[in-house]
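I am still getting used to backbone structure tokens and would like to learn alongside you. To get us started, please write out a protein record for me. Once you have written the record down, we can walk along the chain together.
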Amino acid sequence: MRKEQHHKGWNQIKTNDSWALFKIMGEFVNGFERMSLIGPCVSIFGSARTKPNEKYYQLSVSIAKSIAEAGYGVITGGGPGIMEAGNKGANLAGGTSVGLNIDLPFEQHDNPYIDNDKSLDFDYFFVRKVMFVKYSQGFVVMPGGFGTLDELFEAITLIQTSKIEKFPIILVGSEFWKGLIDWVKNTMLEAGNISPHDLDLIHVVDTEEEVVSIIDAFYKGRSLSPNF
């Protein structure tokens, strides 16, 4: 009897999962339709917990401003911290400022620097991540936490496996990223789990000038288009 009740519950879960597909499809359709109209953008990632008086917040504002002045829009996760700084910099430069917001029980709320017509809301992290990867001409990765690392390594994996076209992945803050890069080189590479040329996918810099220089150099003579 207990096993039979367990099976009934399992069947109910599967039915609910099937209906969820319509909501997931709706998020994809809305995202694709709206993002396809925005034009070339660079995504900026980093901690939602970074405060406006901290150096990486202020550096993110400068980087986003320079990116916008170079003719690219700026996409962030739409929330506070580094995300807010990215949208603020784009806004100050009069550039396109996009926010891909996620519904979370903590940390996340829309920041005021997103263009009114370019604020998108998502319930699913995986749908939101597709939008970042598909419509970004580069990733600028500021110091952050698990979510920042998730975006970073997903992009590296997709490029490494040729699932998407190569684009610049730029880590800002050599002091912050040093431990991770050393581990990748001295542990992952030494163990033979990655190839030496995989390291070419990542740039580590400290200034907004370096960020814009890398992006401009990469796209010199290349077309700007979605990544898949």
